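queue> pop job 88
queue> type: inverse folding (structure -> sequence)
queue> payload:
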């Protein structure tokens, strides 16, 4: 799966108008790489309520950061 990686260049440029465009982030400052991820399929505990009773998380094996 492709995950965001080493995006520190976005914050180190100093000029936010170069990195952050009007409706998107400049693709030159974004970086993705393939990585192994753990898929966590989460269901709500019986007897409880929530707006999102089912959610799937993707956890990067190298950095242990997650995304939905």
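queue> result:
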């Amino acid at each position: 799966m492709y995950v965001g990686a080493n995006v520190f260049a976005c914050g180190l440029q100093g000029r936010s108008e170069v990195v952050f465009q009007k409706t998107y982030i400049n693709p030159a400052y974004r970086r993705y790489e393939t990585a192994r991820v753990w898929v966590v399929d989460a269901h709500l505990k019986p007897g409880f309520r929530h707006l999102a009773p089912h959610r799937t998380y993707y956890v990067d094996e190298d950095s242990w950061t997650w995304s939905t």
